[in-house]
Specification:
Spore Coat Polysaccharide Biosynthesis Protein SpsA, Chain A; seven-stranded mixed β-sheet; about 240 residues; alpha/beta; binds magnesium ion; binds guanosine-5'-diphosphate; globular
């Protein structure tokens, strides 16, 4: 992964150019906090898109906070997040989970890196230890990062993080295929295609509400996606 800054770009984006997008599945305990944080940090200027499959009050709370809500039958993380990133209208697209684990106060740092010329800015949760993450998941995430690093040939520290910023052009240029493994795919395809990608360390908080991901079946799916996506990209 590049440590040098890519070339200066001619446009400087502000939060008026940012869409913050997420899949939401029964997140009524967390969504109010997440969307208030986004509004506070961006001065209410970012567009928010929620692709929602909830049977609780999540969608209602999202609309009360001014988010655009796209309803979708629950079909897994990646189906929702793919719809969300493709629905974003603005040139910079930020993904997050709707569980209050990701630090919205770091949005300015993600935007700064995009303005420095990066195409993808990925939040590395493992850098500070991710003590709030279940130990099994933490171990799995370290293993995925090692596996992906070997397959890509560059050191990646966190392949499965949910908080990233992307240039929308890149999102639209690549065909996305994975579901549970979408987060890894969104990092690995751009990396192998030599887009400018960087990681920044982020804090990772305690989850509000229940996780939707089964660690064993989800972990297997992510491992498979990493191998498949890396092979496809290297054989392109
Ligand atoms: N719309 C929709 N959102 C989902 C689905 N599965 C997960 N999500 C959302 O995707 C995000 C990531 O899921 P999460 O349970 O936090 O996974 P974890 O971070 O691995 O524990 C959360 O905001 C979930 O609400 C789904 O089937 N449909
Ligand atoms: Mg989560």
């Amino acid at each position: 992964m590049s440590t040098q800054l890519p070339g200066e770009t001619d446009v400087t984006y502000t939060f008026d150019d940012v869409s913050v997008v997420m899949g939401t599945y029964n997140e009524e305990d967390a969504i109010g906090t997440v969307l208030s944080d986004v509004a506070d940090v961006t001065d209410d200027r970012a567009e928010v898109v929620c692709v929602d499959g909830s049977s609780d009050r999540t969608a209602e709370i999202a609309r009360e906070h001014g988010a655009r809500v796209i309803e979708q039958e629950p079909q897994g993380y990646g189906v929702a997040v793919r719809e969300a990133v493709l629905a974003a209208d603005r040139p910079v697209v930020v993904t997050t989970d709707c569980d209050d684990t990701y630090p919205m106060e770091r949005l300015p740092d993600f935007l700064d890196r995009i303005n420095q010329g990066y195409d993808v800015v990925s939040g590395d949760r493992l850098y500070y230890g991710a003590e709030t993450m279940p130990a099994f998941n933490r171990l799995g995430n370290h293993a995925f990062a090692l596996l992906a690093s070997l397959l890509v040939g560059e050191r990646i520290h966190d392949t499965t993080t949910g908080m990233r910023a992307y240039r929308r052009e890149l999102i639209q240029q690549i065909h996305w295929t994975e579901n549970t493994g979408l987060s890894a795919e969104l990092l690995l395809r751009p990396l192998v295609r030599e887009y400018d990608v960087c990681e920044i360390p982020i804090e990772y908080g305690e989850r509000k509400g229940e996780t939707t991901l089964d660690p064993i079946s989800g972990g297997l799916a992510i491992g498979k996606s990493i191998v498949k996506v890396c092979l496809e990209e290297r054989l392109r």
